[in-house]
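Hello K.,

You asked for the raw outputs rather than the summary table, so here they are, unedited. I folded two proteins back to back in the same session to keep the settings identical. This is the first:
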Amino acid sequence: MSDIASVSIARPLEEVAQELGQSFEEYGFAVIRDHGIPQALIDRAEEMSKAFFALPDEDKRAYHIPGGGGARGYTPFGTEKAKGAEVQDLKEFWHVGRELPEGHELSEFMAPNIWPGEVDGFRATFTELYAAFEEAGARVLEAIALHLGLPRGFFAPTVEDGNSVMRLLRYPPLEGEGAEGAIRAAAHGDINTITLLLGAEEAGLELLTTSGEWLAIDPPEGALVVNIGDMLDRLTNGKLRSTTHRVVNPTGEAAYRARYSMPFFLHFRPDYVIETLPSCINPTAPEAHPEPISSHDFLMQRLREINLA
């Protein structure tokens, strides 16, 4: 079995598209180096994320929007649970979404962001990081398009003004004997198109292989871990795999400290219809593919399943 690809996207995409695509077909995951997000920006964002989560509980809860499905602002502990899981995950998080100009045709799908007043520079930093994530994501999607034999720019209009969400995530330190190996985020698949994750260097992220084994992902410092979401899995009729993954607590002293990460859930436009690509339909089973569905309807269906809608 080959390893998960670790690819520099500073190289010409024609040179890496095949390796990247094969990793997404086999594992649903790849490690992306030289992604173009400046390390200084990442460091600044991490400091601000930690500063926000260090605020008193009542200050953070002031940014919780009941009935908002966690799409913007703060989501406290014990809210989200993985599909089919019995218990809520051990995490708190903050969401930053797309800023649309007033009167935009898609504004019914995307609420305005809210920003914490307690952390100086928070809005400017995360607005900049959101844009940098988008740029890196667009480049990964170009490589995926090349791998699928599509025009390089195929995905650009499908994700333009998409409902992408950046999540700042904190898993609290755990205590007691059960801390080592405890599940911080239960096994789940991502709903969106692709996910780009910063902060996976801290051990714990694992994916479920096709042979049913958990495989730890160990990226180099500063790299992005990218995985396929259910929307792209659906578009490609399962050719690119949305793989079940989880976050487990590491062993040793790392088990007893907080874990922070920043995933960017890149989404199609809400009005984009996810209809199987003709090249991904099996000619011997031409009916064996999912029904077309708009990305917004698909998102709502899935958010209801995980307790966020």
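The second followed immediately with the same parameters:
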Amino acid sequence: MVHENSICLTVLCENSIGRPLAAVGEHGFSCLIETASGSYLFDTGQGFGLLRNARALHKDLSAVRKVILSHGHYDHTGGLPDLLSATGEIEVIAHPDIFIDRYWAGQGPTRYIGIPYKRPYLESLGARFRFESGFCEIAPGLWLTGEVPRRNPVEKPEKNMVRVMDDGSRIQDPLTDDLSLVIESAKGPILLLGCAHAGLINIMHHVREYKGWESFYAVIGGTHLVGADDHRVTATIEALEEFSVQRIGTAHCTSLPRAAQLQAHFGSRFLFASVGTVLEA
């Protein structure tokens, strides 16, 4: 039971498991948000662990009121069919570009990394898509960032990600559909990230522009510092300090070496946001 004005975040899908559980890890992310006004799911992982891990953590996904997708990659959207089997018809909030075909064009063979399922199939299972590209409130105290401008020069676009356009041409994917969620809590705002492809520094400044907040109680989720150079990591640490973040929970695409670097800097303020991690505020 979530009490009035309290928030409970539980990581359901992530690369690793942080405590003894009958759960599975997978490359992906999903977080359950329980508030006094209801439960909401942010991302769905790849689909291997969502239902199993929810059962292991005694979370009832049939009670979820809305689903928010951070962006259109397989490791954040693949669990949608399993979720829909639990919820039935439900609103799914995402950016309009969520279904664009996407590929990884880095080392090794090119591979598809977009949503594994077509929109008509998901709608046949009960998904009712609501597309948003701007900053907006999607539930009491839950704010979607919308598209985040890429202004900080250290947070450069990722060259290995490609999207296919309607005419069949391929371009570097600007990942304009990368969205994050801000949750108002009694302890202060909580910033929940999917992969932070827009850049964590850019995201925090974007939220400040819209809400005027100068600090965050917590930042949790994927920071996409994997592959980041030392200059970007240092700038990210400085930005987290600038915003006086009290709890920093990294996950998924942060990478273990960069997560360890953040833990060494932030000490007791840091947590590894693996499967089973709970943050209450």
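The mean pLDDT is 96.

Happy to rerun anything if the numbers look odd on your end.

Regards,
P.
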